[in-house]
């Protein structure tokens, strides 16, 4: 069982611990956030909450049945009925369907609660697990590009009530 919660101020410690514990894991397939992200985390967390309050973005934490944070799923840049999907799943939860389930839940929220009509996403070509998550959730490839110098793929998904 997964619990998906909108990001709140009291999630700060758990989010920071999650990012620190999984930093090396994430850096294998996505650009590293850099040291400044961690040293300025309190201000960054406050900025994310402000963006969410303005309706610019929707941030979520993913908790397991025990309440342990195992992921993040975010919708960024909500504009004209569309948003960009991003997600991170803890190394300890990888390969258990957490990303597929969390993305499906956020996809439904995007359509039914946030009024979005489409989502975009991107992943590097050396991240086949992420590519599988997007394909499982009905995203289709729309093109290739370089993400911080790494070959990557763009995706799109019309929500049409899903």
In short:
The protein is of the alpha+beta class. Helices cover 36% and strands 33% of the residues. The radius of gyration is 15 Å and the shape is globular.
Distance between the termini: 20 Å
Low-confidence stretches: none
Helix-residue proportion: 25-40%
- Overall geometric form: globular
Strand-residue proportion: 25-35%
SS-derived structural category: alpha+beta
Radius of gyration: 15 Å
Discrete helix count: 6
3D structure, described in words:
- Helix content is 36%, strand content 33%.
- With 162 residues, the protein is of the alpha+beta class.
- The radius of gyration is 15 Å and the shape is globular.
- The protein starts with a strand and ends with a strand.
Outline the fold blueprint.
Blueprint: E1 3-6, H1 12-21, H2 23-27, H3 35-39, H4 41-54, E2 58-63, E3 69-79, E4 82-89, H5 98-112, E5 118-124, H6 128-136, E6 140-147, E7 150-158
Parallel strand pairs: 4-5
Antiparallel strand pairs: 1-2, 2-3, 3-4, 5-7, 6-7
């Amino acid at each position: 069982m997964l619990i998906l919660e909108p990001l709140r101020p009291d999630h700060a410690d758990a989010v920071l611990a999650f990012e620190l514990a999984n930093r090396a894991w994430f850096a294998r397939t996505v650009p590293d956030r850099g040291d400044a992200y961690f040293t300025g985390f309190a201000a960054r967390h406050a900025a994310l909450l402000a963006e969410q309050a303005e309706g610019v973005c929707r941030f979520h934490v993913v908790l397991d049945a025990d309440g342990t944070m195992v992921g993040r799923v975010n919708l960024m840049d909500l504009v004209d009925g569309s948003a960009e999907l991003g997600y991170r799943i803890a190394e300890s939860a990888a390969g258990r369907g957490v990303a597929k389930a969390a993305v499906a839940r956020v996809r439904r929220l995007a359509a039914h609660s946030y009024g979005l009509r489409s989502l975009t996403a991107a992943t590097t070509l050396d991240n086949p697990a992420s590519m599988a998550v997007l394909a499982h959730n009905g995203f289709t490839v729309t093109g290739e590009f370089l993400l911080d110098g790494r070959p990557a793929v763009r995706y799109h998904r019309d929500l049409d009530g899903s």
